[in-house]
Design a protein that fits this description.
By secondary structure, the chain is mainly alpha-helical. Helices cover 65% and strands 4% of the residues. It has helices spanning 2-97, 107-114, and strands spanning 124-126, 132-134.
């Protein structure tokens, strides 16, 4: 009977060892599957976070650039307002002293624009076939229009 008990115990021990081995294999597979799922999610989350951080960084750069532009525009406006105030003060001072206001730098260019343009230099044009056509000047009378080399005849004078 002692031998039968020993055999039963050895069978039970081997059976329990087999059950423990099966359970550890199942647990290992479950842990590996869970770990791979978690790593896939974390990789996906890392990509999303990286994309989001890149977008945030880009938005921050754009915001800083916009702030720099606005600051430069405000400084420019302040500078222009200061110059205008100084100009007005100088003009007022010159008027109180009895002096004439100074002419602007663009006054010479404005005067040049008001003068009439000189008449065109060339009063004829050459056609593609080589004939020269006489053009009429706006400030000359019509009787002065004669061909330069006789190659072109006015349509009214042709027989």
């Amino acid at each position: 009977m002692a031998a039968a008990k020993r055999d039963i115990r050895s069978i039970i021990d081997s059976f329990s060892e087999d059950l423990i081995e099966i359970a550890t294999d199942i647990v290992r597979e479950h842990v590996e599957r869970s770990l791979s799922e978690w790593q896939a999610k974390s990789a996906k989350n890392a990509k999303v976070l990286a994309r989001k951080s890149a977008e945030d960084e880009k938005a921050l750069r754009n915001q800083r650039a916009l702030e720099r532009i606005e600051k430069a525009a405000s400084r420019r406006r302040e500078r222009e307002e200061k110059k205008a105030a100084e100009r007005a003060a100088r003009l007022e001072q010159r008027l109180t002293e009895g002096k004439k206001p100074r002419a602007r730098k663009n006054a010479a260019a404005d005067a040049a624009k008001k003068e009439p343009a000189p008449p065109p230099l060339f009063v004829h044009k050459r056609r593609r076939d080589g004939e020269i056509e006489q053009l009429k000047r706006t400030d000359e009378p019509e009787h002065a229009s004669a061909p330069l080399n006789g190659a072109a005849q006015p349509a009214a004078a042709a027989p």
